[in-house]
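ugh ok fine here u go
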Amino acid sequence: VHGGLRREPGQGFATMEPVSIDNLSILYQSEDFIVVNKHWDVRIDSKMWYEKLTLQSQLKYRFPELADPGTYYGFRFCHQLDFSTSGALCVALNREAAGSVYKCFKSRTVTKAYLALVRGHIQEAKKTICFAIGKNTSEGLTHMMCIEGTNGCKSPKPCRSELIVLEYGLYSGEPATKVLLQPLTGTEISPPELAQNSSSAMQKRCHSTSFLVCLW
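structure:
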């Protein structure tokens, strides 16, 4: 799998290399855009002085000449990826490019797909997941989304995603399933919600790292 989680012959799933200030994978670069492979467990940017390692700091280290002093963080991030999510993230290098991408997201012409590992073996090869997803307002969980009916779930909105099983294997010695998630409508269903609600074959624990494999 490109830059994400993979399975070695005779072994379990392995992860990409740990993040560092100079370890930034570039998937695409032009005069208008850079598409990077964001690491898992890394923030895109931060106003906190103690957050030294972010995608913004990696970009500034790698491309100091491309940083725009007219923007707060130096770079125009076209969309967001969660802290725990790795994968393709598009960065616009000028205002016009950022505007064109904004129109694509607004008109919903952007295609997104997530590659994820969940604990347990899912029996169905393909299924459609339908849940209403909202913000979690419970203490200590405000950075997460949750499904309707969860304690502290605020303003849930209907969403529908397609799940396709790609491969079975082991993660840390335990059964795991590699799945492709394709958002169809509404907010994307993340692996934690899937692991807790979509199938009795899935255990309630879940590896939260997912990989955005397709932007357009």
